[in-house]
Amino acid sequence: GATLHIAGLAKEYKANTPVLKDISLDISNEGLTAVIGPSGTGKSTLLRCINRLIEPTAGAIILQDDGTRIDLAKVRGAALRQARRRIGMVFQEYNLVERLTVMENLLTGRLGYVSAFNAWRRRFEAADIEYAFDLLDTVGLSGFANQRADALSGGQRQRVGIARALMQRPQLLLADEPTSSLDPKTSVEIMELLIEQGDAFHIPVIVNIHDVELAKRYASRIIGMSGGTIVYDGPPAELSNDM
Ligand code: ADP
Ligand code: ADP
């Protein structure tokens, strides 16, 4: 599987106000890595740097897999767009296109939110459609292809969010507070689905989560953040109770 090697990562949105400070981190493990820590501590900024929704101020983010090696912190233009396709992202608010069907959301993918209209002009390969149906089975939504996103429950929407991320055939799966809009029972189902899919595709899964109990229960590795730095990195069992 892919490995992620982060070194000296820093981010400031405003000059002299660091939000991430010299983060170094290696992720080569399969299984779920949970990033925990108080609100405002930089968890979301970290994931957004990895997915390059924002540009880091300094540091390297090396994504390596078989023959390929890329520094996500430094790529630009077409290479950046290509690199981002290697990273699947799942969001707290699902980020589906509400008026499109489940199948349309999967097929238009990230294009959907940029311009669903333009996406219609794209032709889809039969293989893409077949793969989308397979993924719907995988996430427990067979039979939902023609439902509109706005007719689904939160848990079902998040399942679509996960299937959409998997459509990219990603080398890494990121999830930013994927359960924060869901009830406890559904949260557990979504955590289990993320672990299951990470294992099935042999890809690392990194999840930001403010619920420490949920993190301890499902993660094989916990990264604790505070004030833009990593203050804990290890198994859940050794995490002190005050985190
Ligand atoms: P967390 O995910 O741990 O809650 P965030 O990464 O969202 O933390 O935020 C860390 C800090 O960065 C906060 O002080 C937040 O206000 C600030 N921040 C986040 N996004 C932006 C932005 N786009 N512009 C300016 N400041 C931001
Ligand atoms: P491309 O140029 O390949 O279409 P995009 O800029 O559309 O790439 O998306 C690249 C990355 O941004 C993907 O990893 C995707 O998961 C993520 N992304 C950002 N915002 C969204 C969103 N609202 N919905 C879905 N994916 C998003």
UniProtKB/TrEMBL annotation:
Instruction: List the keywords (alphabetical).
Output: ATP-binding, Cell membrane, Membrane, Nucleotide-binding, Translocase, Transport
Please provide, in alphabetical order, the Gene Ontology terms of the cellular component aspect for this entry. membrane
Keyword presence, Cell membrane? yes
Which SUPFAM superfamilies does this one have? P-loop containing nucleoside triphosphate hydrolases
Extract the CDD domains matched here. ABC_PhnC_transporter (cd03256)
Q: Where is the ABC transporter domain?
A: 4-243
Entry keyword annotation includes Translocase: yes
Q: Where are the transmembrane segments?
A: none
Q: Which SMART domains match?
A: AAA (SM00382)
- Single GO molecular-function term? ATP hydrolysis activity
- InterPro entries per UniProt: AAA+_ATPase, ABC_transporter-like_ATP-bd, ABC_transporter-like_CS, ABC_transpr_PhnC, MetN_ABC_transporter-like, P-loop_NTPase
NCBIfam families (alphabetical)? ABC_phnC (TIGR02315)
Recorded protein name is: Phosphonate ABC transporter ATP-binding protein
Whichever gene encodes this chain, its name is phnC
